[in-house]
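Researcher: Structure for this, please.
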Amino acid sequence: MVRTLDGGLEAAAKRAGFRKRESKWFMPPSYPLGETIDAEEISGEHWQGIKAENVERATEVSGEVDASEVWTAVINDGDGHSAIVEGFGCSENRFDNFVHSFQFVSTAK
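Model: Predicted structure, token format:
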């Protein structure tokens, strides 16, 4: 899933669920006993950003726990344009390939 928005990296990262502590980005746990995941700084030819993996967890009525990996990246072109990219149930390699292929394209006015 890709969402684009106007604004800087910090605003987009907070909107995507990242938090910052002592100048370091992290993804807080998505459930009470989950672990905090440190974000990794990433960059492409014309953008910079952060990414992290988190685990979404849901308990069904039967008591079974369903957990799925979710990769989240936030990228910014340094000119006020950001994108939030989420990959559900995909490998890190596949997610990285998709994120690194991302380009911000100017629109005609």
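Researcher: Any notable elements?
Model: The radius of gyration is 15 Å. Residues 2-100 form one domain.
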